[in-house]
Amino acid sequence: MDTGKASVQMDEGDTPAGREQNLESWDFNAQTEEWRKDFDKKLLRKVDMRLMPTLVVMYLLNFLDRSNLAQARQGSLEEDLGMSGTDFNLATSIFFVGYLLMQLPSNLILTKLRPSLYLGTSCCLWGVVSTCNAASDSFTHLIVIRFFLGFVEAPFFPGAVFLMSSWYTRAELTRRIAWLYSGNALANMFGGVLGAAILGDLEGAHGIAGWRWLFIIEGVAAIGFSFIAAVALPNYPHTTKWLTQEERAFAAWRLAQDINEVDAYGEKTIWDGVKMAVRDYRLYLFVLLQHVSLISQTFQYFFPTIVGTLGYGKITTLWLTAPAWFATFLVSVCVTLSSAKTNDRSLHIICLMLVAAIGNAIAAGTTVVGARFFAMFLMPMGSVASYQIIVSWVANSFPRPLVKRSAVIAICNMIGNTASIYGSYMYPSKDGPQYTPGGSANAAICVIVALLALLLRYVHKWENKKLDKAEAEANVVATEDGKVDMAAATGTQRSGFSCGEGLQRYNVSLLSVPLGRVKGDAAAFDILARQTCAAAARATEHQIAALVDDVAKGEALVGMGWD
């Protein structure tokens, strides 16, 4: 779709609902394609340098503080706190109870606050709580601290994905989410290395056990970086002061070009977003996909224990966890580039999950050291690398409006992560050293993830065919008296509208219109009509109002993401 001038409402306040400042219109369509590409590249480089390194380091610290319990187990943690049986499984799973309780409210609140301050504060809080693990002198203390750790860590990952989706187009978002999720593999790799170094060199230093030093060092690192993050992270394109006015306008314009709709900051309430999300049946398919995918990854919270079945000492075991996670990082980068280049999600997920299934089957079926070590490369390379594609698929498939996207991301993360609560019991100590039940179950689960990805591939193909057919049949034209002729549109579903009165038409796909009337839609369509129609300046207020009102009363197809 081609558009006219991009008139962007700039907000210089601290929140999207703050005071607005009108910015002059920038006619980016009047520029040459070469100019737009050069300007786009310059803007992306500027945003990437501030946003991506900060988020990757934050996620590395986030996952370190979440998973360092697995490294601490290789020290004297269980002995010092009197843990036995499934106590470790409970300590692992209780984290996700707090994590889930905060997921949805956190991401919805984020739409009303400055992301830089909110995510930076979250980083500081999880660093403080993680450090408190070092003060535990009983299993009960550990459980309470782990619960609150999940509560304060919850805002980060869905919040980071939401923030990136407010800056990047769908094609760009896939690669950036992969860069972010690479922090998972890096955290596991560095976690093993740091754990080996700390438990090996600081055990008993100043009368403090090595596992306590582990929590102290990694917690303090998060606290220190939180202040950097609060300054370095941008907020939204229209509120970022280190961009020029032209760059802010272009940042908003390019997102509107990507999906034919602009982010409506503060125009819909939090619960509008939830209602729009739950009315979209694709949400439930993605929730199931993300949930089952996370079950397949529960092994990583026991990875040092599983690697320990190779028969090496505890410190050597931690060193041996690093190569598998480094390989996972490399695979993640490669599949991300491939997915972005081919615009494919489902086939990449299917192939990676089959690799993970093979790894789990080998680990569950043999005690041969070489074969099991090889399997421990395949397990994270498949399941962890595929998850980053799943997360980007979710964000791409629900691009606008802002509150709906935020709600979808939060709901998928919230319900998806319930898998980690019961998944933490898939590897009880009594099943060692082979862990046949857990490994066999995970192999089957990986196959289920692959089948769900295949199902979603065909769901999107089917929906896109419906969208193409509806757009071909719809022909909405504003007449001279301001009324809208809908005779050419079939049924009750309207895929778009065209602007102009004997002028060139600019078809606008209504990619995020909820089913039925939602408060605020008319205003949103008014803005959309004005920003996407070159003829808007020549249309009367009555014509625009009539067109907007008619579309808002109907139902519209929801735009699909790539398959």
TrEMBL record:
It is a multi-pass membrane protein. Its main location: membrane. InterPro entries: MFS, MFS_dom, MFS_trans_sf. The chain crosses the membrane at residues 90-110, 142-165, 177-199, 211-233, 283-303, 315-337, 349-368, 374-395, 407-427, 439-459. SUPFAM superfamilies: MFS general substrate transporter. The keyword Ribonucleoprotein does not apply. This is Major facilitator superfamily (MFS) profile domain-containing protein. It comes from Fusarium mundagurra. The lineage of its organism: Eukaryota, Fungi, Dikarya, Ascomycota, Pezizomycotina.
